[in-house]
């Protein structure tokens, strides 16, 4: 399989996703503003491009994995300004506002090529192990064209609807994740203050109606989920800075759609506060450490 893939944004997620594609036999063309990130991919056999325009012209698929709305918008405007190959399929896997995906789809379509949004969940480990979940916003025909390709980087590839609906699914999932993490953290703190043994209580919620991913897989109380960030000083995992970004996107789409998000808005403020306390780089389960009673009763 000598299909050429352009990959733009070789950070925590992108470098691992691009490496998996290379391991599956795709020929990788790469671009990043960081020379270091490019060099690391070059050492693995990728071809480094100096401009995104050249990269796109030499690629059948182009994947972007970039930090935010403005960078995604600017990157696409710049990449397609001198025209594109009609059969290039552009895929944005960054987490951005659905309206950004819809705008980018329009300009790519006007230039004559195709675009789909395909954000991911599963984090750095999912990127590493090619077990990401892809949420795709596209036509059914475009979904068929990208499904197997995305399967080279992920395990579950779901068509969510038209352009922007992949991002909508991603943002809604992460808002729920943030709310349930804070809920688990304050509930665990209360249970402990009431005198319950955290291990016993956690066993109860995990076979009861309070169970969530946050209680069962990544319990914020150190020691309850061995081998996870809460049991390792909240290092690694899904950063507080990234969940704060995603909650900002939720606040924005909620405003745009007149949707009340009482707890989502509160979760955004809680995580913004954690960022001002220098906890942006810690796993988002650190909210437990932030709100727990630090003194004995
Ligand atoms: P990162 O900051 O590690 O990587 C971003 C990369 O983009 C960097 O290498 C940076 O140099 C590069 N970059 C920045 N501006 C650029 C430009 N103009 N042109 C080319 N390259 C540019 O971020 P990440 O953790 O890999 O996340 C990427 C995206 O994936 C974000 O939208 C994030 O929200 C989303 N995401 C991240 C995770 C996660 O756990 N890290 C999980 C799911 C989704």
Automatic annotation (TrEMBL):
Domain of life: Eukaryota
Pathway assigned in UniProt: Amino-acid degradation; L-valine degradation
Catalytic activity: 3-hydroxy-2-methylpropanoate + NAD(+) = 2-methyl-3-oxopropanoate + NADH + H(+)
Enzyme class: oxidoreductase
Entry GO terms, CC: mitochondrion
InterPro entries: 3-OH-isobutyrate_DH-rel_CS, 6-PGluconate_DH-like_C_sf, 6PGD_dom2, 6PGDH_NADP-bd, HIBADH, HIBADH-like_NADP-bd, HIBADH-related, NAD(P)-bd_dom_sf
PROSITE patterns listed in its UniProt record: 3_HYDROXYISOBUT_DH (PS00895)
GO biological process terms held by the UniProt record: L-valine catabolic process
Alphabetical UniProt keywords: Branched-chain amino acid catabolism, NAD, Oxidoreductase
Record bears the keyword Secreted: no
Alphabetized NCBIfam families for the sequence: HIBADH (TIGR01692)
Protein name per its UniProtKB record: 3-hydroxyisobutyrate dehydrogenase
Source organism per UniProt: Chironomus riparius
């Amino acid at each position: 399989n000598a299909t050429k893939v352009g990959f733009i944004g070789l950070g925590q997620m992108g470098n691992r996703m691009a490496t998996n594609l290379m391991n599956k036999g795709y020929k990788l063309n790469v671009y990043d503003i960081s020379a270091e990130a490019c060099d690391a991919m070059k050492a693995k056999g990728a071809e480094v491009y100096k401009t995104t325009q050249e990269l796109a012209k030499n690629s059948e698929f182009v994947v972007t994995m970039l930090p935010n709305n403005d960078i995604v918008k600017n990157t696409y405007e710049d990449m397609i300004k001198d025209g594109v190959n009609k059969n290039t399929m552009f895929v944005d896997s960054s987490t951005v506002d659905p309206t950004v995906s819809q705008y980018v789809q329009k300009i790519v379509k006007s230039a004559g090529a195709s675009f789909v949004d395909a954000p991911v969940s599963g984090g750095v480990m999912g990127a590493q192990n090619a077990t990401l979940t892809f949420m795709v916003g596209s036509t059914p025909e475009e979904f068929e064209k990208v499904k197997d390709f995305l399967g080279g980087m992920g395990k579950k590839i779901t068509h969510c609807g038209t352009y922007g609906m992949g991002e909508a699914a991603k943002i809604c999932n992460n808002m729920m994740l943030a709310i349930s993490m804070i809920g688990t953290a304050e509930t665990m703190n209360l249970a402990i203050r009431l005198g319950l043994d955290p291990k016993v209580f956690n066993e109860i919620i995990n076979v009861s109606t309070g169970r969530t991913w946050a209680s069962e897989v990544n319990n914020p109380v150190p020691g309850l989920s061995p081998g996870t960030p809460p049991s390792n000083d909240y290092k690694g995992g899904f950063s507080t800075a990234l969940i704060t970004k995603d909650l900002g996107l939720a606040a924005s789409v909620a405003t745009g759609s007149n949707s009340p998000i009482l707890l989502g808005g509160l979760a955004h403020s809680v995580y913004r506060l954690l960022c001002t306390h220098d906890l942006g780089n810690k796993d988002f389960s650190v909210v437990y450490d932030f709100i727990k009673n630090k003194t004995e009763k």
